[in-house]
């Protein structure tokens, strides 16, 4: 079914809403927040999902039109050798902490390995303590349960979908990108419009509120991540050029993002905030759908999302702040997502929290230098990238060691990135000394990040902050994870366990479901089992029931929780949704 959405109505309604906000947010001279003698900058950090380096017209894509991003490109310092992780959650964890993703406990996008350790210090937490208003709009993907949610990690205003994308298992059932329900400050609320429009509109309203505090607005779109769903008037332009699906829809989603970026930048102009607002635009990994059998554009790089080659992790990053540095220039130094945390802290005059060890470097000196050249005292650097979509990280798995000149791939292949940006000529046999040097660097790095790989990042149950709590199969530790609603609807014979911690002992009610509460779905006759640590319970399941309830005493402490629904004469599977509530001492 083709779904039509008209842009004019949205723009008109947004104009009315934001015009009212403009009247409220006009500030008298001298009311701006300051630290010492310098005005604190506002921050807008925009990160899109699965959009690669070549998915921009300013980078040479002749089919895709991105006029607003092209304008931002011309106004910005462009990091042309900027790297992230090859997939979603790892990049976001590094961005939020300034530390390598695997060090923070995040090396997958599901399976309980997308959770940011609760002892990690996050950028919004630090900025909030420094007097900033902090808000997230869109995709968090670092945990949907306490104490891992965005609102638990320093964001004061939150409007987010669940899981790693709209329609994934922790998201509101039935969400399909249009007129969805999202979690607003922890509670599901009905929204109106296309997902990207909703998130940018909420961010713009947040920015427009009258306040003497500076703001940090983190706009993390789920677009253009799959499923490739967008109003027909966006994708038709590309289908009419003969571009096949899903690339036409992928480009349409980017075109919609581009419109929203343009509206946001105009709003900053209207509020007289453009000069002193740091605007960062980046993406979270290489392109997911920008190249197909019919063509596309990948900026000459090898491979795409998920890969250890540059096409998997070299992405665009634009930084704009006219009052602080000259724009419209390239910065070719080797940089990464881990650098933005220390960069923003330095630009905001905020000290790195005591005891926090950062892997990134501040880019403030490079931004201030019109030539974008590292000072002689700035040492050469080596960076590390890997893709670990497994339960436990494996040494050398889909890995890259990066320097300004070299790329060591999987510890075996070596490429001179200056002479061979497409990574087609393996020089490992001709330069074994370089291979050995980069292997030693990787060995040292691996030994440094390895010690906590065996730990689980646990969901806390029974806390006053989140009681009851809902566990979803998205976060099973398992080789078979129904990560989205479409997978769940197939009722696969899959199972796994959750790593949890009961923060208070007491009597708990544990409710097993095949669908979220309120969504009708009946079990077949059979037997249900529940295991919490060494504690086990079972009971028969009646034909036609939609929930199985256990009440039992549970001691406080870390443990594992698993369920089984065994159909009589049929398959066994885990409960895809489990509600856990502490109901008494």
Task: Please supply descriptive tags for the structure shown above.
about 575 residues; alpha+beta; Alkaline Phosphatase, subunit A; Arylsulfatase, C-terminal domain; Jelly Rolls; 3 domains; 10-stranded mixed beta sheet; 6-stranded mixed beta sheet; about 20% helix; disordered N terminus
Write a structural description:
The strands form 7 sheets. The chain has a 10-stranded mixed β-sheet with strand order 9-8-7-6-10-3-11-14-4-15, sandwiched between helices. Strand 28 (557-567) and strand 29 (572-573) form a beta hairpin. The chain folds into 3 domains: 43-368, Alkaline Phosphatase, subunit A (3-Layer(aba) Sandwich); 383-452, Arylsulfatase, C-terminal domain (2-Layer Sandwich), CATH 3.30.1120.10; 459-584, Sandwich (Jelly Rolls), CATH 2.60.120. The N and C termini lie far apart (52 Å). The longest helix has 24 residues, at 247-270. With 585 residues, it is an alpha+beta fold. Helix 1 runs parallel beside helix 5 (195-208) and helix 5 runs parallel beside helix 7 (247-270). It is globular. It contains 12 helices and 30 strands.
């Amino acid at each position: 079914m083709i779904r039509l959405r008209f842009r004019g109505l949205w723009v008109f309604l947004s104009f009315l809403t934001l015009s009212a906000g403009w009247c409220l947010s006009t500030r008298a001279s001298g009311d701006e927040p300051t630290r010492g003698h310098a005005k604190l900058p506002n921050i807008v950090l925009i990160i899109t999902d699965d959009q690669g380096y070549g998915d921009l017209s300013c980078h040479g894509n002749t089919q895709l039109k991105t006029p607003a991003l092209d304008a931002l490109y011309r106004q910005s310092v462009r990091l042309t050798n900027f790297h992230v992780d090859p997939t979603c959650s790892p990049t976001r964890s590094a961005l939020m902490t300034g530390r390598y993703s695997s060090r923070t406990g995040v090396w997958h996008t599901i399976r309980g390995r997308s959770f940011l350790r609760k002892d990690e210090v996050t950028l919004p937490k630090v900025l909030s303590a420094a007097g900033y208003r902090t808000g997230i709009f869109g995709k968090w993907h670092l945990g949907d349960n306490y104490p891992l949610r965005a609102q638990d990690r320093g964001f004061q205003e939150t409007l987010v979908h669940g899981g790693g994308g709209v329609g994934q298992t922790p998201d509101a059932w039935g969400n399909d990108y249009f007129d969805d329900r999202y979690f607003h400050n922890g509670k599901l609320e009905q929204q109106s419009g296309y997902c990207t429009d909703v998130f940018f509109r909420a961010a713009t309203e947040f920015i427009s509120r009258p306040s003497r505090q500076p703001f940090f607005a983190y706009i993390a779109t789920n677009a253009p991540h799959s499923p490739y769903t967008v109003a027909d008037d966006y994708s038709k332009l590309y289908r009419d050029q003969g571009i096949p699906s899903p690339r036409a829809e992928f480009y349409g989603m980017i075109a919609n993002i581009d419109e929203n970026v343009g509206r946001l930048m105009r709003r900053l102009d209207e509020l007289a905030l453009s000069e002193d607002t740091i605007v960062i635009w980046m993406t979270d990994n290489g392109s997911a759908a920008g190249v197909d059998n019919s063509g596309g554009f990948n900026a000459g790089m090898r491979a795409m999302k998920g890969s250890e080659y540059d096409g998997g992790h070299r992405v665009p990053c634009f930084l704009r702040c006219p009052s602080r540095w000259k724009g419209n220039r390239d910065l070719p130094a080797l940089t990464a997502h881990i650098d933005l945390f220390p960069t923003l802290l330095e630009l905001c005059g905020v000290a790195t929290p005591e005891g926090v060890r950062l892997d990134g470097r501040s880019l403030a000196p490079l931004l201030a230098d019109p030539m974008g050249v590292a000072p002689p005292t700035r040492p050469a650097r080596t960076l590390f990238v890997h893709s670990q979509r497994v339960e436990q990280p494996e040494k050398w798995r889909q890995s890259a060691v990066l320097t300004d000149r070299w790329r060591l791939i999987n510890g075996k292949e070596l490429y001179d990135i200056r002479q061979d940006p497409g990574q087609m000529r393996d020089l490992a046999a001709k330069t074994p000394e370089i291979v050995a040097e980069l292997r030693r660097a990787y060995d040292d790095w691996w030994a440094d990040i390895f010690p906590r790989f065996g730990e689980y990042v646990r969901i806390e149950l029974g806390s006053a902050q989140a009681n009851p709590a809902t566990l979803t199969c998205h976060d099973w530790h398992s080789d078979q994870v129904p990560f989205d609603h479409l997978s769940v609807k197939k009722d696969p014979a899959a199972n796994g366990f959750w790593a949890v911690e009961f923060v208070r002992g007491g009597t708990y009610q544990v409710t097993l479901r095949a669908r979220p509460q309120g969504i009708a779905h009946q079990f077949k006759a059979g037997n249900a089992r529940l295991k919490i640590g060494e504690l086990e319970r079972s009971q028969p399941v009646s034909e036609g029931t939609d929930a199985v309830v256990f009440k039992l005493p549970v001691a406080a402490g870390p443990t594992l929780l698993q369920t089984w629904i065994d159909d009589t004469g049929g398959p066994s599977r885990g409960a895809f949704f489990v509600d856990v509530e502490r109901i008494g001492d």
